[in-house]
Design brief:
The chain has three domains: 156 residues, no CATH class; 63 residues, no CATH class; 139 residues, no CATH class. The protein contains 21 helices and four strands. Strands 1-2-3-4 form a four-stranded antiparallel sheet, with helices on both faces. It is elongated, with a radius of gyration of 35 Å.
Length: 375
């Protein structure tokens, strides 16, 4: 029945043709060229596949249905099987007979223990090629320990990519979400996120339960993860203040305080939260008869007033600025004037420019080879 469309062949007829083809194999002039195809299909499991199906027995691996073959791959990748391969010749023969005769469910149970129904279904979504050993082990853990929602998400993936399995396995169980895992650009990003989660678990801060719940909901219900993390960030306490609070001065102690001040003063304070978290700058609100924001920075090892700003970034009157400076000097801010500062007032911007030798002067004799070697 040459050139007959497959959909027009009855199942019984197709089975008959398959049996005829198998029976005719012994008359074919078989070479080992097909083993190149086996090596592609077996991927990183190829060496172990060759142990289980040596020589021309690899035809069994090649001709087996892809879903059944992925079950075999999962069995070969299992820790129980790895203990047999390479050490127990009788065990390898018994394993081959089991792969050929036992049902898939029984094979998986023997290799992994109690197996959820979804595991076999998920194996069938891995595509034609065998995956890395860890992919099968990770997928089993996801199928066994994942909640129904995660299993449903995984079953909708066609094909189910090994990279996604690896990312999900790397996340804490309660934060596993297919959409969220796909959002990472690379392994480095997901490692950083896991490191962040580990540090977050150890942190004790106000509103932690609410912030944790917000992060969990963002991961599982439609995004907003960056905003959830930002809400944690702006609540981090800034490093210890230099100038103590009093009736006139209030230290802006975290990002929330900076954002609140930014709204009241109509300025860009909210964008400076990272500087304050890192301890590069400290921000204070002056609350005397007139109000202002005072920013101090550490320069040359000492705190100095960097800026004093009124609402909408207006400059304060000189007398007002002097009042603030005198108060801050009581706590060592701007008190230290170093000799280097006095010298710098007399130096022009070009004082340290290299202008003694013009490299583009045709009369200048410059040994460029020496310069390159020196560099």
């Amino acid at each position: 029945m040459p050139n007959t469309p497959k959909q027009l062949i009855s199942p019984a007829s197709e089975q008959t043709h398959m049996q005829q083809a198998i029976q005719a194999l012994h008359m074919a002039q078989i070479t080992d060229d097909y083993q190149k195809v086996v090596s592609k299909l077996a991927g990183e499991l190829y060496d172990d596949v060759c142990l289980v199906f040596p020589g021309h027995l690899q035809m069994l691996y090649l001709l087996t249905h892809v879903r059944r073959r992925q079950v075999w791959n999962a069995v070969i990748a299992a820790d129980e099987t790895q203990e047999i391969l390479g050490h127990d010749k009788k065990g390898i023969v018994a394993l081959r007979h089991a792969l050929l005769k036992q049902k898939s469910t029984q094979l998986l149970q023997d290799a992994y223990g109690e197996v959820p129904n979804s595991f076999e279904a998920l194996l069938g979504r891995l595509g034609n090629v065998a995956q890395h050993y860890d992919t099968y082990r990770d997928l089993f853990e996801l199928a066994r320990n994942g909640d129904p929602k995660l299993r449903k998400q995984l079953l909708q993936e066609k094909p189910l990519k090994a990279e996604l399995v690896k990312r999900l396995a790397g996340l804490p169980a309660r934060l596993r979400s297919v959409k969220f895992a796909k959002g990472f650009e690379c392994e480095t990003q997901i490692k950083r996120f896991v490191d962040f989660l580990g540090a977050w678990e150890d942190m004790d801060m106000p509103e932690k339960a609410e912030l944790d719940e917000r992060l969990y909901k963002a991961i599982h219900h439609g995004g907003g993860v960056s905003e959830a993390i930002r809400q944690i960030y702006i609540r981090l306490p800034f490093p210890e203040q230099t100038v103590p609070n009093c009736e006139k001065v209030k230290f802006l102690e975290n990002g929330c305080a900076l954002e609140d001040a930014a709204k009241r003063y109509d300025n860009c304070l909210a964008t400076l939260v990272p500087q304050a978290v890192r301890g590069e700058t400290q921000f204070y609100e002056w609350k005397g008869r007139a109000h202002a924001i005072v920013a101090i920075k550490k320069k040359r090892g000492h705190w100095e007033i960097d800026e004093i700003k009124l609402r909408k970034n207006r400059e304060p009157a000189p007398e007002f600025a002097d009042t603030i400076q005198r108060h801050f000097k009581q706590y060592g801010v701007g008190e230290h004037i170093q000799f280097s500062q006095l010298i710098e007032k007399f130096l022009s911007p070009s004082a340290f420019e290299f202008d003694e030798c013009d490299l583009f002067d045709p009369d200048a004799q410059v040994d460029f080879e020496y310069l390159l070697n020196a560099a």
